[in-house]
Amino acid sequence: MPSPARPAVGYALTLLAAGFFAVNGTVSTLALDAGIEATRLTALRCTGAAVFLVAVLAVVAPARLRLTWREVPFLAVFGVVGVALTQFLYYVAIGRMPVGIALVFEMTAPVFIALYVWLVRREKVRSRLWLALLLSLSGLVFVAEVWQDGGSLDPVGVGAALLAAICLATYYLMGERGTTTRDPVALTCWSFVAAAVFWAFAAPWWEFPFGELGSLRNALLAAGLVVVGTLLPFICMVAALRHVPAPRAGVVATLEPVLAAVFAWVIHDEALAAVQVAGGMAVVAAVAWVQSRRPDLEAELAPVRG
Question: Which of 142, 259, 288, 300 matches a 20 to 30 Å C-alpha distance to 281?
């Protein structure tokens, strides 16, 4: 029996996940610049996270690792599409375009979520959500200052970012369903195991260029990617889907590029232009607007939990 939904907890966890993912964008760029290929970087994140979670649960709560054959297909798709391919395609995108622009395209995931809920589930998607999505995506365009890097809209990068958005939407929707039967940590653990198995075939770990992690800097980057950029945000996001429906969580997640810009301002002293501040305020307004109708939340969760 799932625990009662607590909207405040769900929104806080989604915000935390967005913050961790925002930090991960900067760390990932540094890792790519250090010469680690996108495929290898994704395999490192997935395999490292899987090993860590399995080891911890095996010691602390081995019963949570129990698995039935009936669950395997769901977890395989959840891990390969929602985790492995989302990360890989994101790396392909930021390898060809600025991070901010790649995130604008990837953050169209909430639109795909809303379309799925409307067209496939045949559930009503309130006009408030569509307008909030429009406001949020418009704000992201200003945050990323897309027009300044118009020449950076590499076709392969754009395609990869949009495919990453579809995979991310799949992750939200399947995570929303998966939390009805499994706790967030165990669900995240098995999703990373599935992703790690996939990459063991696609990019065998025994062929990984471990020599590139020889320096302390690169070793710390790898550890940061696994813990801060992978474990913490994915656990927070899956846990949040117990308390808020995927469409709403997706809108809140669009704060990621805004937080990335704020972190760049605080950490690297990269000044924010007035238009970026205005765009960020538009995204924040969209997030506040979409979550303001809390009385409807239980009804939105009911089709998934029923």
Answer: 300
